[in-house]
Amino acid sequence: MGIAFFDLDKTLLAVNSASLWVRDEFARGHITRLQALGASAWIARYHLGFVPMKEALLRAISFLQGTSEALLRERTTRFYETRVRSQFRPGALRALEEHRSAGDRLVLLTSSSGYMSELVARDLRLAEVLCNRFEVDAQGLHTGRPLGEVCFGEGKRVHAEACASRAGVALADCSFYTDSYSDLPVMEVVGNPVAVHPDRRLRREAARRGWRVVDWGAPAPPR
Description:
This protein has helices at residues 8-12, 17-27, 33-47, 53-62, 69-84, 90-101, 114-124, 154-167, 184-187, 200-209; strands spanning 3-6, 105-113, 128-132, 134-136, 142-146, 174-178, 192-196, 212-214. By secondary structure, the protein is α/β, with parallel strands linked by helices. The protein has a single domain, classed as HAD superfamily/HAD-like (Rossmann fold), CATH 3.40.50.1000. The strands form two sheets. Strands 3-2-1-6-7-8 form a six-stranded parallel β-sheet. It has a two-stranded antiparallel ribbon with strand order 4-5. Helix 10 links the parallel strand 7 and strand 8. The chain is globular. The N and C termini lie far apart (40 Å). InterPro entries: HAD-like_SerB, HAD-like_sf, HAD_hydro_SerB1, HAD_sf.
């Protein structure tokens, strides 16, 4: 048995769910225009290489302080069912079944929240979720702090190594599928790194190292 790790945004999904979330939250009046513009600016600055995403993630988590876990879980479920569930790439679904048939353990490795990731894992029948989770106090309110290691960059590698160790699997027997250069720390330690619709930097790195590059297509537009 090996482990097949899968990134979520722009890999399993054809979209970036974080960007969709910001627009959806603004449209529904959950955040102000200023907050939406600020969040979008952080996402854009990250994609342009001007700000470390870990810093942006910690900043976003801090804004949750004092908010209800139950309410955020409810809003995430509605968002997933109406905006995200239809966005899985057809090639991603085929790859999942290929690894499942081979007896591999399927694991989601993402910077997304636990609330979103658990819904994805349920629908795709994944064995485990490695993601960003948030600390909650006894009253069910977010403290504004992450729970455990932030799952991004080197943090993703830490999560992947711990997962492989728990399963008694060597990383050389693992695969990882991602679109992002920020996931290079994980790509470098698995035996089968695969770039899925890679960003410009990852495409260059994949070509340099001889890593496989795949096109998983896009979902059919809704009727």
